[in-house]
Amino acid sequence: MSDVFGRSQLDSAAVSKQTGSSRIGIRIKKRRLELGLTQTDLGEPALASSYISLIESGQRHPSPEALGYIAERLDIDAEELLTGRPSGLEVEIELQIQGARRQVDKGELVEAEKAVSDALKQARRHNLTRAEARAEEVLGAIAERISGPDAALEHFRGAEELWRGEPAHLRFETEAGIARCTRQLGDARLAVYTLDSYRRQLEESNKPDPLALMRTYTALIYPYFASGLPEKAAEAARQALRLETRVEEPEQLACMHLAVARSLLYEGHHDDALQSLRKAEEIYEAGGWRNRVAKVQLNEAIVLAKKENFGEARDKLLAAWELLETSPNRLDQALALNELGHVTRHLEDAQSALDYLERAKGFLEEGDIIEMAFNERELGICLAPTEPKIAENHLKNAVDLYRISGATAELATTFKALGDLYAARGETDLALDALREGLAAVEERSA
């Protein structure tokens, strides 16, 4: 049995080599005829025309020296004769994919999708598996913005298949994308499991790749928060920061600082959070990532509002809005307007606050539960002094939305606002009920 198995291997190898020789010969002949050369012209003075004939017919595989000589005579790269790929094609495709990522950042989604789809076709045609996987990753990011997490997940799963057999550290964007879509579809714990499994796989290798590890810890922060595990999120943030000095890619460092700032804000380290955000802002500004600069500025405004620096927060939000108007991202636009409503209310300009909040509604869609809840709560608080009945409806809507989202801390805050509204109307029993429900939400979060 072993003898037959061995012979089968030899036959397979012979067939493979013969097929490869045939393809190389076809490429050589095609190029020779394009240049109007005879076999003698091509071979002289180093190679006999009979040798060239054997190569072109697939009966001989050229030696490295012969291949180099023929390639030089044909004015073509030897790699193109071997693989059929034009020289530098892989680099060209990678640059096309990177350009598409920048178009995504600018909000040019249709243009980005066309560019990366073209890159994907070329990668498939020339069996460039890694480029194909990266193209699928970018298509996933585009689908998130256009069609939602279900459509995006298909692309990320496609990339995952393409990465099979490749080193694990290359697929960190794919794993982060799968986890992000899973979280958006409402299963934050599965997102944590996905990333934690990948992290363990990375750490089991002899030399864990610091970039892949940092990116994975960064990606874990948000699903940990969504799963009600803030301590785990804080630990993931600390682990990501420890890897900072071992990573050279500025964009990934900026992404890490943006995520870490959220954990620092939760822990009450406002100044540290601002420091992380300013590092991210500097990197994104230097790289020309306008939409990401706006996203950082939004987060800076949130931290400044927590510090009750409402004037500075408003200035940051207006700067972010200026960028978002020319580099549109619907959800970020909604978030900016919601936050403008929030800080303007604290600056005692209720009418402007209401205007911002009503504008924000136009950018919100059915799946934007957290931002919809925030919008309803802010409208309720703004309207409480003048339109208490309408305000009550808004606050009740916010309660329902926060219940759905599982954001218990925000739910408790909303119950307090509802209790304050009832108390101002002299409805003591209703006020006490609202405060009790808010306390129950806090206790549930602590359990």
Q: How confident overall, as mean pLDDT?
A: 89
The biggest beta sheet is recorded as: none
Radius of gyration: 29 Å
Q: What's the tally of helices? A: 23
- Rounded to the nearest angstrom, the distance between the terminal CA atoms is 64 Å
CATH topology of the domain at 366-447: Serine Threonine Protein Phosphatase 5, Tetratricopeptide repeat
Output the helix-strand order. HHHHHHHHHHHHHHHHHHHHHHH
Shape: elongated
The portion of residues forming beta strands comes to under 5%
- Count the strands? 0
Summarize this entry quickly:
The chain has 447 residues and is mostly helical. It has helices at 2-34, 39-43, 49-56, 64-74, 78-83, 89-106, 109-125, 129-146, 149-162, 172-184, 188-203, 210-226, 230-242, 250-266, 270-287, 290-306, 310-326, 330-346, 350-361, 369-383, 388-405, 408-424, 428-446. The chain is elongated, with a radius of gyration of 29 Å.
How is this structure best described in words?
With 447 residues, the protein is mainly α. Among the domains are: 16-83, 434 Repressor (Amino-terminal Domain); 366-447, Alpha Horseshoe (Serine Threonine Protein Phosphatase 5, Tetratricopeptide repeat). It is 80% helix and 0% strand. Helix 13 packs antiparallel against helix 14 (250-266). The longest helix is centred in the N-terminal third of the chain and has 33 residues, at 2-34. It starts with a helix and ends with a helix. Mean pLDDT is 89; it is low at 1-19.
Based on the model shown, name its key terms.
Serine Threonine Protein Phosphatase 5, Tetratricopeptide repeat; elongated; 447 residues; 23 helices; single chain; 434 Repressor (Amino-terminal Domain); 80% helix; mainly alpha
